[in-house]
Amino acid sequence: MIRKLLNLLLIFCVAIGILLGLTFFFSYLPFWKNNKIAYQQPTKLFRLQQQENYDVVINGASRVNLFSPYTNNDTIEKILGRKIFNLGKIGVGVVPNKILLQYFYDKGNKAKHLIQFIDIHSLYTYQINENSDFLADEPFDSRLLVLAFRNGITNAKLAHYYQNKFTFSWINQKPTDSSSTDFRVVREIDPEKVKKRIDNLYFDGVDTVAFRYYSKVLKELVDIAQANQTKVTFVLLPHHLGKLPGTDRVMALLNEIKKEKGVEIYDYTNEPFGLELFLDLDHLNSNGVTHFTANYLKPILEKEK
Amino acid sequence: MLFNSIDYVIFLPIVVFLFFSLPHQYRRYFLLAASYFFYMCWRPEYVLLIIYATTIDYFCGIEIEKTQSKRRKKAFLALSIVTNLGLLFYFKYFSFLNESTRDVFQFFDWAYNMPVLHILLPVGISFHTFQSLSYTIDVYRGKAEAEKNYVTLALFVAFFPQLVAGPIERGPHLIPQFLEEKQFSYTRMTNGLRLMMWGFFKKVVVADRAAVFVNLVYNDPNSYSGFQIIIATIFFAFQIYCDFSGYSDIAVGSARIMGYNMMYNFRRPYFATTIKEFWARWHISLSTWFRDYLYIPLGGNRVSQPRRYFNLFITFLVSGIWHGANWTFVIWGALHGFYLVFANFLKDIGLTIRLGSSKVVNLLNYFLQLGITFCLVCFGWLFFRANNVSDAFTLIKRSLSASKSQLGPYLFGAELMEDLLVLLFFIALLETIQLLQEKVLSFNRWIPTLPTVLKWSVYIAGILLILIYGKFEKTQFIYFTF
Fold first, then answer.
1. Is A282 exposed, middle or buried (0-12, 13-18, 19+ CB in 10 A)?
2. What is the distance between the alpha carbons of residues B438 and B271, in angstroms, rounded to a whole number?
3. Given CB atoms, is B467 within the 8 Å cutoff of chain A?
4. What are A177-217's pLDDT values in tens digits?
5. Is B336 a catalytic residue?
């Protein structure tokens, strides 16, 4: 009887083994097929090597991710004269930010400086934290899976991490054109669109219970960076959405972290950035990225050298 | 606790292990505790409702059996019926009735002051109240003995595999099984696990994938073309079948591991060639419940023709109301009642169409009947799934305007094309397996006869299919809300 029960367990283990093997194979198939995939992909892990030394690692959501596609990454590295790694991903909050930063260090990488871009709504919304699908477009890595599991990413998203590797869209993905530039420009500030955008960002409203938890996560993120001898700076990017809900509470938190952990804060939310520098109400276009890097990011790094 | 959750994957093996480790006399207590725990994972305080109904039915059952007076028997039966249906009415129908009355009063501009009550519907209340009711009615009819052991009766009402969505078991079938001493059987366990695997496939691979398209269309009917609505309605037919029969398979499989046999709730309903046959294959435990406790007491078939039609119609109307407190369910029930009355009427006047008797004609006739029945059922599903009656009519109106020109290259958009193809593949796979089961062989009997390597391959392929293509979004089973 015991032998038969062990047989059943063995069947399950074999199935899991095959699943892991297939996931790994399909995960790296596009990488092998295309020789290498450039950073222009949303994928970070194809680009992230082990034991590398970076001058600056930048972290945040889609507004930070935009510092890398097209020719943007080369441009900002040239302006800053520093080696940069961009961990920013579309649709993420502080929990995925913390996971990716921890993963960055777990691979033996080092960075002198972390620029953590703060999105006010990311400290309120479950949808872009535990329920974020940020793993789906990354190749499979058990270390990242374990990190995500430990940080409370939902089972559905953990499953989607490996399931996505079995789709045609994953297998057939190709490196994007790295020679183009994104010059899309927003034409006007439509109050209707502003309202719609804010409703989209604050999917779960201004949840104070969630805020308390994500405040703790942000502090842990700072601790991780400081434990790895990385200097941390908080930066808030400009946008055309007006004063966002819950801003005062987030600013108070950032100031508290500044006091506790010696983190500098640079708030450019209300800087006069013309519409020609935005591709929509809150995302900089390539010109915007260049302008911000040259006139704001560079002085910060120079100052905090 | 949901069957399609990690919690259940941990819960079930622990329960099975402890169940077989305990001496027989303690197993019922343990299973009852496990069942209440299973229910309390959702909302702990609502377990009191089950305990309350069980206690009333326990005493009513004993009193009905003990007393010789017909009036007293009737009084205790009435008490049981009022208790069970009262709970059901308060939690499920009060708000619906309140809102409907308010609408009528508002229409006539009359004052209506009854406040809106926000009552949370206890999961599975329609199932356990019906199961409990069947027990006292059976005792009253002398078809079952009153259960003297409270724990046994409580377990019959709350047995976790079937507590929240059936199958609605009968006392004489399930209660004696709780009294038998169960021995662990490897064959029975693998049999149960196979059934569970099939259930998981239906739920997480087919139903939850179909739900993506169905929700898209049914939650925003004005944004989709007639063709998309028709496709979404067909997908809903598979979604609800795979969701509910998947649940039933997991329930029956879980119980079987512990040695309990529960009734099958589905027999491939979309292979039915008439609506009558559909109801003999769909939610069998509910349709037989209504037959035994409503249709037959109303007079059943042994009455005049118009009265028989009335009985049939009323039974299906009540069945519709049982499903949910919404006019869409009332229409759905009435529609099925109408289908059956109409079919009976045609039969009674001797109107049957014969196309011929050759093999080819018979086959064509079979597929034609199959297709017509499926279309009629799908039309009913449209009301069943629509968020309200107005949406249902919008969907009908738009689907009547379906044309070839609405067929774009992607149907639901390029980003959902791959999901659509995967879903179509799995529906085809499901139907092929079901066709083979219907016409050729039972997989549950065939798989154990395979050589070990092949058998293992089938199991591994099944597990992989579920893990790779399943949706693990913690979606509720549709029938949990009934």
1. buried
2. 8
3. yes
4. 666 666 777 788 888 888 899 998 888 888 889 999 999 99
5. no
